[in-house]
Design goal:
Strand order of the largest sheet: 7-8-9-10-11-1-2-3-4-5-6-12
Largest sheet: 12 strands, mixed
Low-confidence stretches: 1-34
Shape: globular
Structural class: mainly beta
């Protein structure tokens, strides 16, 4: 039987996939908008333990990530052309991992599932208790920002927005912040050449919210498509947490 090849096949345990965004570490000599960001973030306090992040890129592809900090589970889905491209499910407090991706040759979904060693699943359990949304706010608050524009939308159902910028020799990052939550809704990162000219950009629209429960569609393996799931040994080189 011909071996199956995945276009995207996530096999990395949670201890290695806790990146929270595109933020780079930059310093600015401009006036800081940090106090505004901090004040807005304080408004977003909630008792909900289920966090939802959706990031949509300029090509229309998008990723949905839902972390349930009460039941200690997480689901990440990537969609291309509105079709599920890959999915990783972390359950049983970080112990059970299921990874699904599309076979390059057939286009069908195939997957693998495995059980993490106890010490690594214990690390995953700790990480699943961490708030993704609070991490986003911390990253915003850790940078110096210059306010570009504030727009009050008090007469409409839309949130007030503030646009801020942070810039160094090689990057310029423009972020639109929802003042009611303190969270970014759009990021644009511009790359500069040695002369300081902008040579490229990457933009994404983001949605952050708290949920009362995990949607049934997310909880299912692959929505309407069938998938062949194989049980395998945990694909790790060493039974230890990597540094870094």
């Amino acid at each position: 039987m011909k071996s199956k090849k995945l276009a995207t096949f996530l096999i990395i345990p949670l201890v290695l996939v806790v990146s929270t965004g595109y933020f780079y570490t930059g310093k600015s000599n401009e006036v800081s908008a940090q106090s505004l960001v901090t004040a807005a973030a304080d408004k977003a306090a909630t008792n909900s333990k289920i966090e939802y992040i959706k990031e949509t890129l300029s090509d229309g592809s998008y990723t949905i990530r839902i972390r349930d900090r009460e039941n200690l589970t997480e689901v990440t889905e990537e969609y291309r052309n509105d079709k599920l491209h890959s999915k990783i499910i972390i359950e049983d407090k970080g112990k059970k991992i299921t990874s699904i991706g599309r076979d390059i040759e057939t286009g069908k979904l195939v997957g693998r599932t495995w059980t993490m060693p106890e010490n690594l699943s214990a690390e995953n359990e700790k990480l699943l208790e961490v708030s993704l949304l609070e991490k986003q706010k911390e990253e915003l608050q850790s940078q110096d920002w210059t306010i570009i524009e504030s727009s009050s939308r008090s007469l409409s159902n839309e949130s007030d927005l503030t646009q801020v910028v942070s810039e160094d020799e090689i990057h310029k990052e423009v972020v639109t912040i929802d003042d009611n939550t303190g969270l970014p809704i759009k990021r644009e990162i511009f790359v500069k050449d040695k002369a300081g000219n902008i040579t490229g950009s990457l933009s994404s629209t983001q949605e952050y919210k708290y949920l009362d429960s995990t949607p049934n569609k997310i909880q299912s393996l692959t929505s309407d498509e069938e998938v062949d799931i194989q049980e395998i040994a945990a694909p790790i080189v060493e039974d230890k947490v990597l540094g870094g």
